[in-house]
Amino acid sequence: MNYVTSSPAETEALGEKLGKMVPAGAVIAYTGDLGAGKTAFTRGLARGLGLTDRVTSPTFTIVNEYEGGRLPLFHFDMYRLGSSDELYDIGWEDYLSRDGVCAVEWSEIVDDALEEDAIRVDIRRGASDSQRIISITGAEGL
Prior knowledge:
Blueprint: E1 2-5, H1 8-21, E2 27-32, H2 38-48, E3 63-66, E4 73-77, H3 84-89, H4 92-96, E5 101-105, E6 119-125, E7 132-137
Parallel strand pairs: 2-5, 2-6, 4-5
Antiparallel strand pairs: 1-7, 3-4, 6-7
Helix pairs in contact: 1-2
């Protein structure tokens, strides 16, 4: 499915809609340019999961964990990783076994480590500064 949003709030609202329906153990693989709105989408995803913590980009920490909602959220940023080998070094398999939701920014860097059934979210800039073109595959019913 393809969506067009016109503001960060609309991008968050789309993420929230996904968060309300995503099952335990889901992996959400993001692609998109720097500053395209991946973290904004994740803020909405967290809200849809019933999480109230402030969601920030995990660029320097690699992963941020949020608990206390319907499901825990593990928000990864792979921008600084060189390969999927490094993903396993930080405990990827342990996160997968915790029955939460793994949201993975810059997923193309570790694509060979992701399951085929991962939900794919591609976010691109649109015609204006605030417009985003968002493509979501693997999340039927959204």
